[in-house]
């Protein structure tokens, strides 16, 4: 089936509009970014990913907490990815956050236009693909990005978005800080040093709602290409439709989340501060032909003005410095303003001894 040209798409501004129109029976060529002719076979494995019981980390016995920290260490070292259960975030809040984000995407296009993408550090940004000013191909994705810490922002509509998102952001930030504290301990670093190294009281937190509508030829498209995240940890909530693949031992693994769980992956800043002991995981988002997938990403990083460098305690005993430092604000802006290419910016900071 021949790919359709770009021309008919000019009247649409989002993937949701394209999908809802029913005008397409095949994928426009500008969205073709994978397949046997481009990147070889696309089959992926199905493996059980590490599961972390958050309740045992914060409310268990000393022995149970120690075991969870060991489990986190292994998950960060071997996978860069894990699933969090018994996290204490109410199911009703998780559902409300997904629903209010869906409410935003369902608004009229003219109502969303005031948030259309401009600068990558605008606190509220709505758009499609990844960054249409630099994307060589388009990705089958609409998004809403909202900065929620240290300064909280919210779109004015839909009604209730502000109240729901401030509670959700607070609860997920608290959970992520506890996970980071345990990961820090797993590196045998002193808890007091973490605040000095990362300035987490002023940590950067962003909410990203990703919408992946049904796609006419999902085997040729991607929701978002292989990449690592720029922060410390990323917390992912899905709407019940799977589509996440993570790279593990050189192969792709399909991830299926348990009900009422969060998926968590390590980011570039954690790889830097751990001096490479914990690698940021490469992952991608797939689309499908029949169901709308929505994912809600909570990304937590250090303070934007923090220059992240490997923890000095990890650069000793014959362990050489693995990365140069860089202000987190500059790292984020560079990654978001350029094509999304796996670990391209992190590779620039990596020292080759």
UniProtKB/TrEMBL annotation:
<dbReference type="GO" id="GO:0016491">
    <property type="term" value="F:oxidoreductase activity"/>
</dbReference>
<keyword id="KW-0408">Iron</keyword>
<dbReference type="GO" id="GO:0046872">
    <property type="term" value="F:metal ion binding"/>
</dbReference>
<dbReference type="InterPro" id="IPR026992">
    <property type="entry name" value="DIOX_N"/>
</dbReference>
<dbReference type="InterPro" id="IPR027443">
    <property type="entry name" value="IPNS-like_sf"/>
</dbReference>
<keyword id="KW-0539">Nucleus</keyword>
<keyword id="KW-0560">Oxidoreductase</keyword>
<dbReference type="Pfam" id="PF03171">
    <property type="entry name" value="2OG-FeII_Oxy"/>
</dbReference>
<comment type="similarity">
    <text>Belongs to the iron/ascorbate-dependent oxidoreductase family.</text>
</comment>
<feature type="domain" description="Fe2OG dioxygenase">
    <location>
        <begin position="199"/>
        <end position="302"/>
    </location>
</feature>
<comment type="function">
    <text>Involved in the regulation of shoot development and salicylic acid (SA) homeostasis.</text>
</comment>
<dbReference type="InterPro" id="IPR005123">
    <property type="entry name" value="Oxoglu/Fe-dep_dioxygenase_dom"/>
</dbReference>
<dbReference type="GO" id="GO:0005737">
    <property type="term" value="C:cytoplasm"/>
</dbReference>
<dbReference type="Pfam" id="PF14226">
    <property type="entry name" value="DIOX_N"/>
</dbReference>
<dbReference type="InterPro" id="IPR044861">
    <property type="entry name" value="IPNS-like_FE2OG_OXY"/>
</dbReference>
<dbReference type="GO" id="GO:0005634">
    <property type="term" value="C:nucleus"/>
</dbReference>
<keyword id="KW-0963">Cytoplasm</keyword>
<protein>
    <recommendedName>
        <fullName>Fe2OG dioxygenase domain-containing protein</fullName>
    </recommendedName>
</protein>
<dbReference type="InterPro" id="IPR050295">
    <property type="entry name" value="Plant_2OG-oxidoreductases"/>
</dbReference>
<keyword id="KW-0479">Metal-binding</keyword>
């Amino acid at each position: 089936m021949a790919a359709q040209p770009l021309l008919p798409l000019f009247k649409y501004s989002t993937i949701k509009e394209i999908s809802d129109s029913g005008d397409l029976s095949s994928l426009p060529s500008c969205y073709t970014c994978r397949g046997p002719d481009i990147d070889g076979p696309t089959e992926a494995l199905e493996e059980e990913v590490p599961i972390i019981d958050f309740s045992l980390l914060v409310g268990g016995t000393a022995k149970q907490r120690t075991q969870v920290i060991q489990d986190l260490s292994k998950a960060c070292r071997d996978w860069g990815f894990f699933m969090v259960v018994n996290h204490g975030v109410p199911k009703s809040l998780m559902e409300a956050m997904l629903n209010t984000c869906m409410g935003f995407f369902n608004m009229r296009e003219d109502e969303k236009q005031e948030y259309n993408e401009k600068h990558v550090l605008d606190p509220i940004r709505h758009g499609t693909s990844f960054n249409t000013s630099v994307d060589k191909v388009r990705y089958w994705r609409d998004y809403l990005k909202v900065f929620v810490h240290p300064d909280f922002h919210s779109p004015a509509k839909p009604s209730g978005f502000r109240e729901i998102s401030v509670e959700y952001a607070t609860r997920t930030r608290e959970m992520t800080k506890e996970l980071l504290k345990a990961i820090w301990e797993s590196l045998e670093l002193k808890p007091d040093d973490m605040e000095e190294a990362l300035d987490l009281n002023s940590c950067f937190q962003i909410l990203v709602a990703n919408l992946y509508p049904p796609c006419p030829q999902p085997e040729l498209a991607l929701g978002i290409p292989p990449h690592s995240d720029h922060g410390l940890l990323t917390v992912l909530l899905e709407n019940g439709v799977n589509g996440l693949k993570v790279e593990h031992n050189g192969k792709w693994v399909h991830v299926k989340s348990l009900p009422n769980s969060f998926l968590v992956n390590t980011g570039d800043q954690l790889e830097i501060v751990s001096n490479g002991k914990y690698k940021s995981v490469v992952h991608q988002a797939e689309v499908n032909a029949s169901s709308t997938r929505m994912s809600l990403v909570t990304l937590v990083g250090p303070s934007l003005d923090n220059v992240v460098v490997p923890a000095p305690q990890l650069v000793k005993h014959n362990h050489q410095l693995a990365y140069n430092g860089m202000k987190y604000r500059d790292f984020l802006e560079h990654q978001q303003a350029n094509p999304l290419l796996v670990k391209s910016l992190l590779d620039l900071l990596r020292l080759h001894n």
